[in-house]
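Researcher: Here's the sequence for the chain we discussed earlier.
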Amino acid sequence: MKISIGKYFKLTPVQILAIGFATVILIGAILLNLPIATQDGIRTPFIDCLFVSTSATCVTGLITVDTGTHWNYFGKTVIMFLIEIGGLGFMSFATLIALLLGKKITLKERLVMQEALNSFSLQGLVKMAKYVLIFTFSIQLAGALLLSTQFIPEFGLWKGIYYSVFHSISAFCNAGFDLVGGFKSLTVYAENPVIILTIGSLIIIGGLGFYVWQEIYNFKGLRRLSLHSKVALSGTAFLLIIGTILMFIFESNNPGTMKNMSFKGKVLSSFFAAVTPRTAGFNSISTSDMTNAGVFLTIILMFIGGAPGSTAGGIKVTTAGVLVMTVLSIIKGREDTEIYKKRITKDAVYKSLAITTIGLGLVITVTMLLSITEPSATLEYLLYEATSAFGTVGMTLGLTTQLSFVGKAIVIFTMYCGRLGPLTVFLALAKRANSNKIKYPEDKILVG
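Model: Thanks. This is the structure I predict for it:
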């Protein structure tokens, strides 16, 4: 007698996505909790294993134990696989396995893939999934080859190759995990252009999204680019250029960060400090020693994040772009939001507003909760930690390792919400109501 689980448990694509990520996180935590995962052969507290597994799967980079010194190669490899699965989405890997086994991709699986890849339609999803995997592995291989020119001479052949592959995957997936040790991240390579520019480029490529790169690959002129790609590219370029200039102004004379660097090192570190908050988590300067202006700029960049359908988090650069252009359109007296001589649908504007409002609400709520669980930390540290977790960035001012048990649990939930997207989490938890066919009478309210 066959029992159909689907008959009793009807899950939406959003709910399948949420449960899938949670399952991967739990499996990762169990593996990291094994004594064979640590350097000293002693079990790591499960809350720390769950924290690191969530951080890796949600490609965040926040850690409560040092990745380079606490875990052995088994533990590091588990983290590397969690980063890859989390960055590409478990559905991409499920699709890869299904294709290798010669299985057909069902309609329900295609709907989940559509949600995971942020695709506009179901058409060509399997083909796009193949493209995503081939593109990802090709870019990561290229990044590893470039990094190996620096790591092999320093660490030897096999260790150098492993470090190159690990950091290439971590950078492309915008995870921010490193194997340098001592919680130093890439500060020891601040003036190494090959490492800084390679990792910075991998972060940007991963943060633009697969849809954008597919259009760039098939480039047939600016006019043929979709509005999404134009906004993602122009928004990313604007934030990188402005971010680099402002970081140079804020930090170049700061003795705690860039003052003692050469001009080349200052430029590289300013560029890297503008790249990593969106949303990779590496750092080439001491984040805890940054100026208040530098810290605040980092928080803004972390909240915005990268592009939809990418490995990055945050509210996404296109969401911010839609909101900014909506404000400008209102100021100009326009009835519709207009970008590049195109009219944006009200649905996209409402969704952008919902995502930003929920994101702000989540960051504020988490900051308030952490202020209760971590009473000794300053508001600056708490807001930075909350935004970093929400934006799946992984940068910290030093609070992560000092978090209480409850504080860790709060940050774990925030990273999970940040990776799936706040709106996705709310849709997964709530029952979607049928569209309301009743139209209530219109009335006026004073705003502003």
